Amino acid sequence: MNIAGFRWALLAALVCTSFQPVQAQFKPAHPPPESAPEQPTFAIRVNLVRLLVSVQDAAGAVISDLTRNDFDVYDSGVPQKLAVFERNTSLPLSVAILIDTSGSTMIDLHYEVESVLRFIPTLLDAGNQEDTFALFSFNWRTNLEADYSRSAKRADRALHALKGEGGTSLYDAVYLASDTLQGREGRHVIVVVTDGGDTTSYKHYEDALNAAQHADVVMYPIVVVPIANDAGRNTGGEHALATLATATGGRIFYPEGFEKLDQAFKEILRDLRTQYLLAFYPDRVPATPGIFHSVAVQTHRTDLHIRARSGYYTPK
Predict the structure, then answer these.
(1) What CA–CA distance (Å, rounded) separates 206 from 310?
(2) What is the pLDDT of residues 187-197, one digit of tens each?
């Protein structure tokens, strides 16, 4: 583990400590009455909440030189004190790449495959040497095509074997990918390449969103619809994807034609290389296990646009 990873593991640890009185090794001259209360046991539970934050100006340019004092963080409306601040954080990435292989993608799937194959080497070459990726395909079911690793060759074999068929179980795919990310060290990212909404999932939108938020995922949907088929777009599905992106601190892309796919992946990489890491220990807010806390991140500069996840769940 590198220094940054060690520092995060140390800070993010869940601390449970108990203090028991030391028992004397002799019989006291005046023993306490049997009704005397037992000595109390103390327990401390610490939950470090981390926020991956992207900042842009009105023109869309990345702002990467802000300081700790430029940010205000609120948990359920209560101001919080930052315990961790990192600019351009280098925490390792675990990136789940979800490829839509439903029947509607059959003709143009090879464009998506080639663009993903160009994205993977740039993801691995320019960042932390512990960055990894996994590949999932989804149609009426979700398949793990390649587990988390740094093997571009494995990705090549898996991607070239994909075929388009069946319906679209998008929410199932997000739910299952989030489950594989939960507990992995560092940052968690889902990139989903699809041409529309969900049609065959067992899970619902709320299930996918809750799973992503429990796993501390940043989500980047790329909606690929050929211009010739623009009239058949699933606007309801696209709205759901946009909401998933906003709630997790990511953003959605609408490349106009397959030739713009590479640009979408480049912008995702730019986001990942310029993220701020903010973290705090919740103070003066309910610690009830399993409840959702809304979070807001602000700056004193009104010309800047901030993207961060909308909240977190307290550990159960």
Answers:
(1) 14
(2) 999 999 998 88
